[in-house]
Structure prediction request, 766 residues.
Amino acid sequence: MENEATGPVSEEALASALNLTNEELIELFSILDRLEHDGLIVCNRNDLYGLPAQMNLVVGTLSMNSKGYGFILPQDKNEAELGDVFIPPSLLGSAMHNDKVICRLNETSTSERAREGEIIRILERANKQIVGTFEKSTAFGFVTPDNTKITKDIFIHKRNFNKAPVGAKVIVEITKWPRKRHNPEGKIIQILGQADDPGIDILSVIHQYDLPLDFPAEVAAAAKNVPMSVMEKEYKKREDRRDLPIVTIDGDDAKDLDDGVYVTKKDNGNYLLGVYIADVSHYVRENSTLDIEARKRGTSVYLVDRVIPMLPTRLSNGICSLNAGQDRLSMAAEMEIGSDGQVISYKIFPTVIHVYRRLTYNLVNKILVEKDPETITANKDILNLLNTLSDLRNILKKRRHIRGSIDFNIAEVKVKLNERGIPTALLKREGSLGESIIEECMLIANETVAQHMAKKQLPFIYRVHEQPDTEKIANLNDLLATFGLHINKNTKTNNIDPLAIQKVLTAVEGRPEEKIISTLALRTMQQARYKEENAGHFGLAAEFYTHFTSPIRRYPDLIVHRLLAETISAKGHLAATRQKQLNKMLPEIAVSSSIRERVAADAERDTVDMKKIEYMAQFVGDEFTGVISGVTSFGIFIELDNGVEGLVHVSSMANDYYEYVEKEYALVGRRTNTRYQMGQSVTIIIMRADAKERLLDFILKGNGVYNDFKRPKVSAAVEKIAQIPADSTPTNSSHNHRHKNKKVDSYQKITHKKKHRSKHLKANHK
Prediction:
């Protein structure tokens, strides 16, 4: 069809061209059905088959925006390189967020937007069950989805209420998909609880992302059959490293300990680094009950208040975890590393270890950074090991920097909850020396394992990170030009080298424009993913890279261990039939693992953001300083010092009309020429913090008016909002204290316009 057909073809024409027998003809029909279901071919209204690209069609996943429009993310690699396809609200048909669809490309209405289209067919529905809040009248009800990308409420007939009370958080099953001018219909299949009940917010996110709360009975039973200590027979065919003082270094609350390390400096000045990873593949055999469940989950999910593990706790916190003082099976990567950070030689092999001590990042930092005398005295037995690890860390980090590895220093914000799940503090965590030591040890082990398997040319799973988005690099260069900087392409490869980006980031370090440039450079990056072919890792400037070091919580790492063990057992060779089987299986595992990783990341981010907003609700009406982290036509995003991000809507900026200057990442006032640009520091007042709606709204101090139309109830002190003069003295912006007795020079309230009244009446009627 791609190479010979001159147009869409019939089944008969295909059968004839392929010279099929009667038996093969029967198989042809099922193959055509499967190809059509997968969107690789399209059957038109005349029952003729063609390829989407040759029919001006694009197949992909619909990603909706809460404003009502969407984008098609093409599934075909060549189409993906041409960019996403914009779908305006009027041309969405009945498609919903995450549906797999076919769209017809239309003539682009503006030169700025690359491609626009119209959805003509839905291949696969994604939202069979939806989590939301139930409201009802006498005869009917509706569920408003928690996911704002699902833009249509679900209509519920009275017979399908299932005794759900008003305001309940529910799971609704779709019974009729949306049609033109008709919302989807459904029935309530589970009542999670009232929206305000403790823990319901997190439970809603878990169900929204279809995360598994419990392990099936057969999986739990399989876990119970796993012994809780290493059996005598398991020591055979393993090298014994129990005499080494191997340590684990993790966070204070970590329970699933994947990795242990040991280092010593040799007489020749080189370092011998041993990285010892839990041998999960020994306990989780291919296609076993435990393996199938782990593949389905793909990864452990670390939500704000709990962990949803990939493996049952008996394994993840028990026999697989490298707990101190207990014999454990591991896969080792021992490397001799020169003073320049290069791996001179290495050995990868199964071993048995006995972790000497469990250390934490805090303890390591107290010893190496704070040099606390009491802590040092109490830990003399590990001082030499830690100092040697620190020296090696510096060498490895320098090596990565020289080759162009890009380090984005992004602070992590951890939300501290009380026993009722209410946020009590935001803890901003910068990378520490203890974490950096482990990071460098894991990076070099991952590279070594990936290079080892790539040279053997055997089936494998790699962690790949491809070239930055070309259009985003061009836009970034437009901004860099104003600072006399430019990211140049490699003249030989015509690609961007990571070193070119690193040099720009180094050039702006400590300068006012550092924040904006580093943020935009990060946004040019593609998303790292798993792949069965090696494509290198751009961000790390690594030719070979994989994930080897976390098999307790990541399925690809478990696969890497399994392939290593199999290769070692087969003395470096795999049978042709096994290679063929792996070549078919690994691409599917790579894709599903990448998808599950993104789902986990989205769920984790949602729960953290929700609790951040809930925490900030106590500070409505207070002032904070922050940095402009994003600029759009509808407003500016501000990141506060405590890591929380909110929006200043352009409609609240009262001193001028503001226009969006895209290439400068700025909003500029027409009359005053006041400029709000990415990276700029501003002072804001928190206007609204609504965790249910996932909204955190700010106004600018000295340039803001407040519309309290949809405002939640707050204290009398903030019943009105201040339009505070720009020359007022700023107050302390710390989020730990409510600002008392704040002087407000004037108050201004926006009068509700007709459209607001109309919207209010419509909402109440609905």
